[in-house]
Amino acid sequence: xxxxxxxxxxxxxxxxxxxxxxxxxxxxxxxxLESYMKRKDGLVVDPSIxxxxxxxxxxxxxxxxxxxxxxxxxxxxxxxxxxxxxxxAHVCWWHPPYAGMLKYSGxxxxxxxxxxxxxxxxxxxxxxxxxAVMNIHDAVERGGVYGILxxxxxAKGTYYNLSSLVERIAPGRLIDEVIKVQHNCKSDSSSYKxxxxxxxxxxxxVFAKRESSLFLIGSMEKRAAAMTGITWxxxxxxxxxxxxxxxxxxxxxxxxxxxxxxxxQHWQAKVRQVxxxxxxxVRLKPGVYQLAA
Length: 293
Ligand SMILES: C[S@@+](CC[C@H](N)C(=O)[O-])C[C@H]1O[C@@H](n2cnc3c(N)ncnc32)[C@H](O)[C@@H]1O
What we know:
Strand order of the largest sheet: 1-8-9-5-4-2-3
GO molecular function: methyltransferase activity
CATH architecture of the largest domain: 3-Layer(aba) Sandwich
InterPro entries: SAM-dependent_MTases_sf
Number of helices: 9
Protein name: DNA adenine modification methylase
Organism: Stutzerimonas xanthomarina
CATH class of the largest domain: Alpha Beta
Helix content: 25-40%
Radius of gyration: 19 Å
Bound molecules: S-adenosylmethionine
Distance between the termini: 41 Å
Keywords: Methyltransferase, Transferase
CATH superfamily of the largest domain: Vaccinia Virus protein VP39
């Protein structure tokens, strides 16, 4: 259980594959679960298990657990997490890749994969992050929480505050922020030329689910209010996740409360414009769309 808001685990422990690059210590997952699980029989979910750290922690703690990853065929950017797990998660743990730092597909596993968030440029990564966080939020039950462990990074002298980005876009209510001191990371030796301060921490942001509804049903007004940090493209992609084939009218209906929160009178034109992006959307026939494979 977390004793305070700064944690340090010099020894990563025995959970998961220690050679999986960018893995995290099981100690933080154990503390997270001990701190936020309210029901012993609640389902624990990790949509990006990497080298299986959370898998081992959950097994050792005797918890009900569903873990997957892009390397297992599950894609947080096109699949609907709630439908995949088949029930709502009590607690969700997510340790995303950081754009451009370590590449997973094509290096740690399989062939290069266009949905692999570690291979994206910063702009695509930002949108993917929005989409993934909405997907996770929607898969958590009312009263449940999700924790996102995120590091910040510096590239060519610019500091990218990814944890702050997560905080801005997550639809849940932020309930805790835990600073994790980093040990033995690559940047200790390599990336510190110049006058910059060495980044030696990651942040675990913990959010409580705000309400019980999925994106397409229920209290949309509240949901829209929570979504003000999200881009239009991410919102349209979220509506189509989980192999949905939808008419423009249904897409617009789902987005209407969001549009109200944006105060954009021409939002339907904006939705049509977003749907032109062939990297993400396929027009099956006039006015009917699905996500690109
Ligand atoms: C930082 S690693 C997780 C490491 C893990 N916590 C561990 O201790 O081994 C991030 C993971 O996200 C996965 N990933 C990348 N893009 C994804 C996507 N679109 N959907 C699901 N997982 C994805 C990568 O394959 C990688 O395993």
